[in-house]
Amino acid sequence: MGSIQHIAVITGASSGIGAEFARQLAARGCYVLLCGRNEERLRALRKEIGADKCDYFTADISDTRSCIDLYAAVREYHPDILINNAGFGVYGDFTESSLTKELSMIDVNIKAMHLLFKLFLKDFEKQGRGYILNTGSIAGFLPGPHMSSYYSSKAYVVRQTVAVHTELAMRKSPVHVSVLCPGPVTTDFNRNAGISSIFKGISPEECVSYTLRQMKRAPLFIIPTLYCKAIAAGSHLAPQRLSSFAAYLMQKGKKRIADDA
Fold it and tell me: Is 77 one of the catalytic residues?
């Protein structure tokens, strides 16, 4: 791999933020390992980036065994960056939303994130270097009526990352962890959740470009916009019922475009 200095594993790399991380990291000289479910998209992205700059692995990480197999395959490359990005949402009131989809979402957003976070962190500490970025959401700071399970799953990502960050700092670990907490980003997220939104998001290019600049400082939180920074700060001050009502009004403005079967 020539003069490659860093090797990055990217989950959820077949589209959206994950695919953009792959493009921008490869452009900065990283060798990228693309991980996702859609082999056709991964193959196309590898062709776009260049086969000499990346490889791809097809896996459904909602299945724990497949997630472990993916880890075993990519660790052979001795990566030092993990972009723990895979995730999706489910829309609808808690009594009406699909339990099957919610459990699958929990498997991806929580179980797979947790598993890969733990396994790669242990590897990175053994090799004495590494950076892990967990993709959370501004939703992780709020209750989320109409998307309660998704918001809760991202709260797990935020709290887990914060706690581990403290553990690493206290023992002066050479490994850095951060949590990315964007607001709306113009990806397939809403379509996959079965909704359309009146809120305009930033582009994946903007989100990733900002994130990579911030990663040089290795902060705990990476929050791309001033609006979302204000939400994160205000979430600690506003009563939970008020925060929940505000989120309710925001989510209520979305329109369902598909049924949760």
Answer: no
